[in-house]
Write a structure and sequence with these properties.
With 152 residues, the protein is of the alpha/beta class. It has eight helices and five strands. It is globular and about 40 Å long.
Length: 152
């Protein structure tokens, strides 16, 4: 397993251990991790802290040139919001752990020239299946398919 992808999986596991949705992400520039993160919507009561957004936030403000040389690793196919951030910052490459649980905006990314590689990693699939079995309503809420209740 690629060392950076392994860190993304560790972030997903950390999120699950915190009671959150097990999706992790890592932003890498020239072989160095700039930011790592995991989905913290539940833990922080956030509307936007998906794994990719957390990794970008933790990387801090960077120049456009840096983003154009980055790869973002994510354990689950990026949603519309996260794909938008990838496009906004011009990140040219995305490594996806799996897209069977959720197929995000991979075609949009590809149509805009982003290289998207999907690994279909068994550990990523297992983490998501475990969470969804235990918390189907929270998962539906996270991907925008839930009802209007906010259970806290």
């Amino acid at each position: 397993m690629d060392e950076f992808f392994r860190v993304a999986v560790e972030e997903a596991e950390r999120g699950l251990a915190e009671g959150g949705i097990p999706i992790g992400s890592v932003l890498v520039h020239r072989g160095r991790i700039l930011g790592r993160g995991h989905n913290r919507r539940l833990q922080r009561g956030s509307a936007v802290l998906h794994g990719e957004m957390d990794a970008l936030e933790n990387a801090g403000r960077r120049s456009a040139q840096v983003y154009r040389e980055c790869t973002i690793y994510t354990t689950l196919s990026p949603c519309a919001m996260c794909s938008g951030a990838i496009l906004l910052y011009g990140i040219p490459r995305v490594i996806v752990g799996e897209n069977r649980t959720f197929l995000g905006e991979e075609e949009l990314l590809r149509s805009r020239g982003v290289v998207v590689e999907v690994l279909q990693d068994a550990r990523c699939q297992e983490l998501m299946a475990q969470f969804i079995r235990a918390h189907p309503a929270l998962w539906a809420e996270d991907i925008g398919n839930g009802d209007d209740r906010i259970d806290r």
